[in-house]
Write a structure and sequence with these properties.
Helices cover 51% and strands 18% of the residues. A 4-stranded antiparallel β-sheet has the order 4-5-6-7, covered by helices on one side. It has a two-stranded antiparallel ribbon with strand order 1-2. Strand 9 and strand 10 form a beta hairpin. The protein contains 10 helices and 10 strands. The mean pLDDT is 94. The chain has 261 residues and is α+β, with helices and mostly antiparallel strands.
Length: 261
C-alpha cells in the first residue's frame, strides 16, 4: 500500500526544482526584444558581435565590474566562475556537422580578424602568409637567395590542409614549426583560452582568468549566446547536468537585462 505522504513529498520535491532552462529562455526573449529595437541589424550574430565589442548599456555597466571591488562585482564574477566550472564538467555542443564545437571559455570565439599579411624570418628563410578579402590564403617560403622553397595557395584558411600538404612535410621540423605558428597568426577568427594570458588576473569565484576584461566580457557574451542557440535549436539534451549549466547562464542574462531597464 502506497504512502500518500511520501508520494506527495516526492511530487512536490520534483515541482520545487527551478526550471533554469525555462528561465533562461524567457530572459533571453526579453533581451532579444531589447536588441532588436536597439540595433538596425537584423541578424542575431551581427548584433551579438556589436554587443561584445562596441559601446552599449550592457558592456558599459558590466565590463568595469570585472575588475572592481564591490559585493556586486564579486557576485558577477562568481557567476562567471560557476559558468566556467560547469561548462568544463559537462559538455554542451553547438552547431552541426563540421561546425560543431564545444561551448567552453577555454576555446571561445571572440571576433573576426581582418585580412592580413604576416611576414617573418627564421632559419635563413623568409616566410610569408597572406590572407586576402575573399579568404584566399597564399603561403611562401623563400631561401637566402630568394629561391622558392615552399609555396601553397588555398581557397580558405585550413591549417590541417597546410600540414597535410606533401611539400610541407619535406620542410625541416624547425621550418614547419615556424611556418605553422605564422600561419596560425593569420587565422580569420580570434579564438582564445580566457584562462590564459599575460593580463592582470581576474578572479572569478574559484577560477582565475588571465585575459583582458574586454576579452572576458566578449567571451562571456559569446558563450551565453551559443548556449541560447543550442537550446533554441533543439540540440540540447535536457538533463539535470545540462540544466545546472544554465543556472549561472540565466543569472548572467538577467544581469544583461538589469543594465537596460
Amino acid at each position: 500500500m502506497s504512502n500518500t505522504f511520501i508520494d506527495n513529498r516526492d511530487a512536490w520535491m520534483r515541482l520545487s526544482d527551478v526550471d533554469y532552462l525555462g528561465q533562461f529562455v524567457k530572459s533571453w526573449l526579453a533581451l532579444n526584444a531589447w536588441y532588436r529595437s536597439a540595433y538596425t541589424e537584423t541578424q542575431d550574430r551581427k548584433i551579438i558581435n556589436e554587443i561584445k565589442w562596441n559601446s552599449n548599456p550592457v558592456a558599459s555597466y558590466l565590463r568595469p565590474l570585472l575588475i572592481q571591488q564591490s559585493d556586486e562585482a564579486e557576485q558577477f564574477r562568481a557567476e562567471i566562475g560557476l559558468l566556467h566550472h560547469r561548462l568544463e564538467n559537462y559538455e554542451i555542443i553547438t552547431g552541426k556537422g563540421n561546425t560543431k564545437e564545444r561551448i567552453t571559455l577555454t576555446n571561445i570565439f571572440l571576433k573576426e580578424n581582418p585580412p592580413c599579411v604576416k611576414n617573418g624570418q627564421s632559419h635563413g628563410c623568409l616566410f610569408s602568409v597572406e590572407r586576402i578579402q575573399n579568404k584566399k590564403i597564399t603561403v611562401k617560403v623563400l631561401g637566402k637567395t630568394g629561391n622558392p622553397i615552399y609555396q601553397l595557395t588555398q581557397s580558405h584558411y585550413n591549417l590541417t590542409g597546410l600540414q597535410d600538404d606533401p611539400a610541407y612535410g619535406k620542410l625541416s621540423a624547425s621550418r614547419q614549426s615556424y611556418l605553422r605558428a605564422l600561419y596560425d597568426s593569420a587565422a580569420p577568427r580570434l579564438i582564445a583560452d580566457l584562462t590564459n594570458g599575460n593580463e592582470a588576473s581576474i578572479q572569478c569565484g574559484a577560477h582565475t582568468f588571465g585575459c583582458s576584461r574586454e576579452h572576458l566580457f566578449a567571451g562571456l557574451v559569446e558563450a551565453v549566446y551559443l548556449m541560447r542557440c543550442t537550446l533554441f535549436h533543439g540540440e540540447l539534451s535536457p538533463t539535470r547536468d545540462a540544466a545546472a549549466c544554465y543556472e549561472p547562464a540565466y543569472r548572467i542574462v538577467r544581469r544583461f537585462l538589469e543594465c537596460i531597464n
